[in-house]
Amino acid sequence: MTYFTNKVVWITGASSGIGEALALELALQGAKLVLSARRQDELERVKKLTNLAADAVLVLPYDVTDFSIAESKTSQVLAHFGRLDCVVHNAGISQRSRVSDTPLDVYKRLMDVDFFSTVALTKAVLPGMIQQKSGQFIVISSVAGKVGTPLRSGYNAAKHALHGFYDSLRSEVFDDNIRVNVVCPGYIRTNVSVNAITEKGEKFGQMDANQAKGMPADECAKKILAAAAKDKKETFIGGTTEMAAVFLRRFWPSLLFKMVRKNTPK
């Protein structure tokens, strides 16, 4: 038995990267899964990889920026499993563009995907969790939610916003036995930089060197779930560089800002 055995866990952004790795690890730990992303074919691929019984995995295609359907999608989950124990807010996109070049519609898209979508889904599932007096939100933020870096201003802003919102929620739902765990990965070996958007709203299409050398997604997934099982309120996952940046941000922010400035592309 594991902490997640027989728990119903809904993962957004489950078709690749950290989301896919979480689905596979949760399957090994005996969870029942709801897999959401826009691409149904990729979700079906992940479902097959879990090797779970067909009725133990609900493939639920879902564009998280369509806020109006969050409640109906929640109803589908409850109709299938009868309950929902945990939501992993993992869907997101990154950015590669300068503030001076980035129009407001790109910033809006970033905030819609990386922040407002989590708020919409949280509000949809929260009444059920309050009623059953149990639940958990695992929120995939980023080291960028603590340390602002160049070319990612909108992404940084959205991740910072997650911390403020979910820190507030954690206090509000404590007496309802609902856990809120915010996770801050650093460089993880996924296509997050490839899929990042430019000032034109187009895919960046390049793998960052740090991303390519980052922690494997399956290792990251294990660390995320271990932290959630222990109810760690805020967890940082990554290599020496990212952890050093978090440390400097807290104790020597001026030094960190100087280092970031020197590494800003000209």
TrEMBL record:
GO terms for molecular function: oxidoreductase activity. One of its GO terms (cellular component) is membrane. PROSITE patterns: ADH_SHORT. The keyword Nucleotide-binding does not apply. SMART domains: PKS_KR (SM00822). The keyword Oxidoreductase applies. NCBIfam families: PRK06181.1. Belongs to the short-chain dehydrogenases/reductases (SDR) family. This is SDR family oxidoreductase. It comes from Arundinibacter roseus.
